[in-house]
Specification:
Number of strands: 0
Radius of gyration: 36 Å
Structural class: mainly alpha
Distance between the termini: 69 Å
Strand content: under 5%
Helix content: over 70%
Order of helices and strands: HHHHHHHH
Length: 259
């Protein structure tokens, strides 16, 4: 049996069970016919059939147990452990993210990962319950039940975290966007006198930044000091400061109203 693959060993186990059931059915049919016809002359034959049937049952059960133990130790045990390890990893990620800042995208990924891995474990237990010893089936079913409950509790905790930390999530995202805004605006060259085209480009750049904040739902980022300083006109741009300031004031008003 140690040389057989997983699929070959499963196939042999199914074939063994099929042969045993055929022997049982034939034996029961023979015994029923003999008893119905009251064939007293065949009493010894019936007794022999019963004896051989019992011997066959014992040998079948012993062989079946050996094959199931082999399947468990060589194949199922390691795969089952891998599925449990995957689940524990996801639970650990959920715990770690709840200790910091979790975005909606991260929440969705965790939720999907939990559901898919518990489903995979459930399907594994269902597919293997007839190929491994009964005591190991019981262990897997208890483990599956525990993980289902742990998944339920984890999802409840994640939902509560998202409700409590909704503003914090947006705040963290706003900081990230603020950093990108700083880099973008710092790359803009200063606007000198008699440069109307450059002044217009600067105004449009500031306007795009503010509109991006509205589109991303990160209105709170406008309160970030990094953003406020970056929205100031670069040195040497005095002539267009009033125009740019007007755009910023207009967009800031829209941000406040939309919030």
């Amino acid at each position: 049996m140690d040389l057989l693959s997983e699929q070959d060993l499963k196939s042999e186990l199914r074939a063994l069970k099929g042969s045993y059931e055929e022997i049982c059915n034939s034996s029961f049919d023979y015994i029923a016919v003999m008893e119905e016809e009251d064939a007293s002359g065949f009493a010894q034959d019936v007794a022999d059939v019963r004896k051989r049937l019992q011997e066959c049952r014992t040998k079948y059960q012993d062989t079946e147990m050996k094959m199931k133990k082999t399947l468990w130790s060589r194949f199922a045990y390691g795969q089952f452990g891998g599925l449990k390890a995957d689940l524990e990893t996801v639970f650990g990620q959920a715990e770690a993210l709840q200790a910091g800042h979790m975005t909606t995208g991260q929440y969705d990924l965790l939720h999907t990962a939990l559901e898919s891995r518990v489903k995979a474990l459930k399907e594994f237990v269902r597919d293997w319950d007839r190929y491994v010893p009964e005591k190991d089936v019981d262990v897997m079913q208890v483990c599956l039940k525990d993980y289902k409950e742990k998944r339920r509790m984890t999802i409840v905790e994640l939902n509560n975290y998202m409700r409590r930390g909704k503003r914090s999530v947006h705040g963290a995202l706003g900081v990230l966007i603020a950093d990108n805004i700083v880099l973008e605006l710092q790359d803009l060259p200063a606007v000198r006198n008699n440069q109307p085209r450059e002044a217009l480009q600067l105004i449009q750049a500031v306007e795009r930044v503010l509109l991006d904040l509205i589109d991303l739902g990160c209105e709170d980022a406008i309160k970030n000091q990094l953003v406020i300083r970056s929205l100031e006109i670069p040195a040497g741009s005095e002539d267009c400061s009033s125009a740019t300031g007007a755009v910023a004031d207009h967009q800031t008003t829209e941000l406040c109203q939309s919030g």
